[in-house]
Amino acid sequence: MNTILDLPIHPLAIHAPVILVPLLVLFGMLYLFVPPIRRAIGWVVAALTLIAPATAYGAVWSGEQLADFLYPNGWPEAVTEHYDYGIRLLWILLGLIPVWWLFAALDRGRRASALRDADSTPTVVEGEDGESVSSGASDPAATGRRLFMIILGVIAFALLALAAWMVFNSGDTGASMHWEGWQNRGGQ
Questions:
Q1: Please, are residues 63 and 83 in contact by the beta-carbon 8 Å criterion?
Q2: Is residue 134 part of a domain?
Q3: What stretches pass through the bilayer (predicted)?
Q4: In total, how many domains does the chain have?
């Protein structure tokens, strides 16, 4: 088992996902539901989508080492449940990465298209049938992009909500194990 200053790594490693996953959920929800601030917080969410899974992996890895050290003959049910929540959290966060980055890329394309449309002055030209046609302020991909962003946004929302639920359950089961162990030792 790896240690830092004679302490197991797991109690130290869990603090990062306990802080970063809720921050990812908070900033991710703001990014999804408050479009005007997307440019301001986009880089924060992008960084958290990469850092949070790495910290979750570190917590799972160090937890496996600690559990194997404490229970060489097999893990108790509470440890297995705690571990399962951690693994689920890790997979949810890994699944969020491509969904999030694709959503952000489509949003960036939407913003770039809106800027192009704002910069161009629509001109009116006469169509083949003699009807006036406006050119300049149209994005042929806008409808498809919007639909795909809605679908990805719903998936991202679900993954963020699941990540919040899994980090809560993982933390709760871990804290319960520690607290019950502390109480069984007489509060020492």
A1: yes
A2: no
A3: 12-33, 40-60, 85-106, 147-168
A4: 1
Domain region containing 66: 3-118+140-184
Full 3-state SS string of 68-119: HHHCCCCCCHHHHHHHHHHHHHHHHHHHHHHHHHHHHHHHHHHHHHHHHHHH
Asked if the structure places residue 173 within a domain, the reply is yes
Cα(77)–Cα(48) distance, rounded to whole angstroms?
A: 31
Position 125 in a domain: no
Which residue do the tokens 């607290």 mark? Answer: 179
- Rounded-to-integer distance, Cα 154 and Cα 160, Å: 10
In a domain, 24, yes or no: yes
pLDDT value for 138:
65
d(CA 82, CA 170): 5
| Number of neighbours of residue 31 by Cβ within 10 angstroms | 24
Alpha helix segments (H runs only) across the chain: 9-13, 15-33, 38-70, 77-119, 142-184
State the residue for tokens 């694709």.
102
CA distance 153 to 4: 40
- Predicted confidence band of residue 5 (pLDDT cuts 50, 70, 90): confident
Measure Cα distances from 168 to 44, 90, 162 in Å: 22, 13, 10
